[in-house]
Structures are given as C-alpha cells and as structure tokens.
Design a protein that fits this description.
- With 355 residues, this protein is of the alpha/beta class.
- Helix content is 46%, strand content 13%.
- A four-stranded parallel β-sheet has the order 2-1-3-4, with helices on both faces. Strands 6-5-7-8 form a four-stranded parallel β-sheet. A four-stranded parallel β-sheet has the order 10-9-11-12, with helices on both faces.
- Helix 2 packs parallel to helix 15 (320-329).
Length: 355
C-alpha cells in the first residue's frame, strides 16, 4: 500500500503540477552530480526535498554523514542554520550551503554564548552538556554535545568518567533535560529553554488521541511538553508500557522499519523498544514532517500526528526551488570562523564518539 501524499507535497503539486515537480527533482539531482555535492536533509523537511536528498536523518545521523562525506566537494544542508554550522565545523575544507539563511531555530535561540559563560561562572567545575540544537559559539563553550538519541548515554558517560557527584549544566531544552533526569534518577542544572513546536504538543493532545485511537502505539520525542504526563500514565498503569516509545526521530524510523519488517507480528519492547505486537496505528508526538519518512518506511502502519499543528516554520522554509537555486547559484555559504570551529569541534566529536 503506497502512502498517501502528505499535505505539504499536495501543496507543491497544486502550485507547480506533477510534471514540474518531477522536472525540478531531476534538475536538482543533475546539479548535485555536476557540483559533486551531497544533499543532506533533516526528517522534518518537506517531502519533495527529502525525496532528492542523498541522506535523510536526525541530527546525530546528519552529523555523522557530514563528517563522512569524503568524496563531496559541496554539502548542501536542508535543515536549519545550526545544522549547517555543524557540517562546516566537521568539514572545514568543504563548501557548506544552506538554501535559506533565515532557517533558524527557536530552541537554539534560547541560549547564547554570553549567557552560557555567565551560567558556567555560577557553577565552577561543572561539566557542560549542550543539545546539538545550539549555535557554534555556544558549542565552543561546551564540554559535550548531545542529541535526543544519545543524551542519556552522554550524561551516563560523564558520571562514569568524571565521578558520581559531578555537577552537570544541561541545556538548552528543559524537556529533554527532564527526560534525562528521569532516566538516570539524578538531578542536573537544566536551562529553561524549549522548542516551541515540541512544547506545543501538550498532555491534552495525548489524551485526545488516546481516546480516538485506543489501540495505537505512542512514539514520543523527548523534547515534547507531554513527556512527563505520559510517563506518569505509564507509572500508573493507564498506558501499556509495550505501546509507549520515547524516541528520537532516528529511533522513530527504526521503529517503522521494524514494524514493516515484522508485518506487525513482533512483540513490544517497552518504552524504548520496538514496534508493538500487531500495531497498525501509531500516534507520533513530534514535528509533523516526520510522518512522511515514517509512512515511507512502513506503508502498512497508519501514523497519526498527536498535534497536526506541530509544524516548524523554519524547517519548512527550504523548498525544492530554493534547493535548486542553491546548487545552481552557489548560495548561501555557511562558514564558522576557524577559532570558534576548533573549540566547537571538541564537544561534537565527543558526541559522535559516544554514539
């Protein structure tokens, strides 16, 4: 069963027509070959951009793929600005382009380097862990970066190598920080920042979708404001642990692949595990762009947005015509100053090494 065209794909088709969209895709691929460019796209990008990308993934996967892009002369990053900065840090000899310079991030904007330096002064000797959703200047003041897929492992590694009583400054996402604290049973100092899209997915959204889809699995991104309430439902026995999965976007794709491979016959593995037995519906609590790669990976599972309004306008700023123009006109370059890049690479390398 082929997945239905999502609304964003339908919008482009209505604007340009199917033949023009197909022609644009071919033009983008030809330009990429000509420029010896690799196109990297985040899971939240519009479907037609995902379709032409050489690799689609989450922040950690994209960082690894950028670092491994040995044969490419150009990296075109279809995501938001901090992601293109990370690619520039990891690949200083390559030209890194982003099709729209205005593609920012509300979470990255919630902390800047002077604020982080002031916070560090309050807790001398503390280890700083910053979500990869931060500027290069903030990363340069950081000890370890992390993503939603490895935040728990990064913090566990710090306690194991720096000592059980190490103070940790974790930022900027307070919901991800709270999730890590719950998983490890330890308190950190957590910055009061949030992704406005994920924070907008509230407990009432989960309650409504539970009522409408009582047999569905729940795939919940740790940045969501609803994570605390869902974990309370699990603890109270109101939600079967086999159906609740706290997952990064990369983890969600792994769930979809397992669901498709098992054709719904495999057993569940709890809050972080695989697809539930016989699950034919899954409610997804993250940015709605994620539904497209999930549906492509598992066409026989119906993926439902916990909140259909959870759309990041920054992620949707990069379009197929802008991607074409970026390749054709060599715009817009993102380059991190050498000294900032040198310091920022240390926490990024640690993040990638921990996995």
């Amino acid at each position: 069963m082929a997945p239905d065209q999502p609304p964003l794909a339908q919008a482009l088709l209505a604007q340009l027509g199917e033949a023009e969209v197909a022609e644009l895709k071919e033009e983008v691929r030809a330009l990429a070959r000509e420029r010896r460019a690799v196109i990297l796209a985040h899971n939240y990008q519009v479907p037609e951009v995902q379709d032409v990308a050489d690799y689609v993934g989450d922040s950690l996967g994209l960082s690894r793929r950028a670092a491994a892009a040995a044969d490419a002369e150009v990296i075109v990053f279809c995501g938001v600005h901090f992601m293109a900065e990370t690619a520039s840090i990891l690949c200083p000899s390559k030209r890194v382009l982003i099709p729209d310079l205005e593609a920012g991030c509300s979470l990255a904007d919630s902390i800047d380097a002077p604020q982080l330096r002031s916070w560090k002064e309050e807790y001398p000797g503390a280890v700083v862990v910053m979500y990869v959703n931060t500027s290069a200047e903030v990363k340069a003041e950081t000890d370890y970066c992390c993503t939603s897929s490895n935040a728990v492992e990064v913090v566990r590694h710090i306690y194991a190598t720096h000592g059980e009583h190490t103070q940790i400054l974790f930022g900027p996402d307070m919901w991800l920080g709270a999730y890590v604290e719950r998983e490890l049973g330890r308190a950190m100092h957590v910055w009061d920042g949030e992704c406005h899209v994920h924070a907008g997915i509230r407990p009432t959204d989960i309650e409504a979708t539970r009522a409408a889809h009582p047999g569905a699995d729940f795939l919940i991104h740790p940045e969501c404001g609803c994570t605390t309430s869902v974990m309370e439902y699990v603890a109270a026995g109101d939600v079967d642990t086999d159906g609740v999965h706290m997952l990064s976007t990369g983890g969600m794709l792994a769930y979809a692949s397992e669901a498709e491979a098992s054709q719904g016959a495999g057993g569940g593995a709890g809050a972080g595990g695989g697809a539930g037995a016989g699950a034919r519906e899954a409610v997804v609590a993250t940015e709605t762009g994620m539904l497209y790669p999930l549906q492509m990976a598992a066409p026989d599972v119906r993926f439902i947005a916990a909140n259909p309004e959870a759309i990041c306008p920054f992620m949707k700023m990069i379009t197929l015509p802008k991607l074409r123009d970026s390749l054709r006109e060599d715009r817009f370059e993102v380059r991190v100053p050498e000294e900032i890049a040198r310091r920022a690479r240390v926490p990024i390398d640690r993040m990638v090494a921990i996995g």
